């Protein structure tokens, strides 16, 4: 039972008191005998509950009087963590009582994964994804994140683009961190002035501080660290014709497997590659990533039909460095670009299920 501190109106033994019972109802006791003869409007005027920070408007609710106790039950339950004020006025004398219901205890959140997941990532990696076990709080997230150059024993200055509009998923359980493209592309001012965020051959640690709170204001259970080595830059466009493909057998539900030859963006690859039947309709199934996002498998909900099927790959699929299908992120005019990109939004690759 939640019971507020009793508040005395006067030194009389029959003093009026205010309390909050069970966190649900405000009760006033010790009222004058004459109170039982008053109207509902009188009761509502005598006992009001307001927001402590905005006392001008009383909460809507129901007033009842029984056995000398005047009760107020709000139309909507009192919210944990909100400060309320009960105001009782009797014979021109006013008593107030502030109360706040405690927030229910909940299991602290944790960082469940950071992508790219590999122990070695490209120097021109464009983004990181941080996944949490529960919805997290928005706002000022960058104060909870740091990137340390372990090789040179120093923190990286402004490693991420600090966007005012933070890049959260709708459920608030994944946030995207972008590295400034100006510190990735060669021979541009941010890279010249500040240097690259990541440097080939060196080791870095991305840390998420315990101070980051979830939607209920509870800090993370523990700090999370991901240490990785930086490899050479990847400036090669994605080429689905070069992927390895292992087709399943008809009549079963063994997965279709792809090998990309390099890691692809974990946030995009799960929704930008679909499997289509002979009529061009999507086949339902479950996608799994493996080997640091360089392998993809698709297990259908129903058994595979025999015949010619197809993969549909959207051209805005990217790898960790922002290279797209047929289009490298950074074009070097002194190097061959590869085959030209047409205006289509997707490409297909056929395969046969026998």
Explain what this protein looks like in three dimensions:
- This protein is mainly beta and 354 residues long.
- The chain has three domains: 17-100, Immunoglobulin-like, CATH 2.60.40; 111-231, Immunoglobulin-like (Sandwich), CATH 2.60.40; 240-353, Immunoglobulin-like (Sandwich).
- The protein is 5% helix and 36% strand.
- The protein has helices at 40-46, 189-194, 266-269; strands spanning 17-21, 25-29, 47-51, 54-58, 61-66, 69-74, 83-90, 93-100, 111-115, 120-122, 127-132, 145-149, 154-155, 167-168, 174-178, 203-208, 224-231, 244-246, 256-259, 273-276, 285-290, 295-300, 307-314, 346-353.
- The strands form six sheets. Strands 10-17-16-12-13 form a five-stranded mixed sheet, with no helix packed on it. The chain has a four-stranded antiparallel sheet with strand order 1-2-6-5, covered by helices on one side.
- It is elongated.
- The model is unreliable at 1-11 and 332-339 (pLDDT under 50).
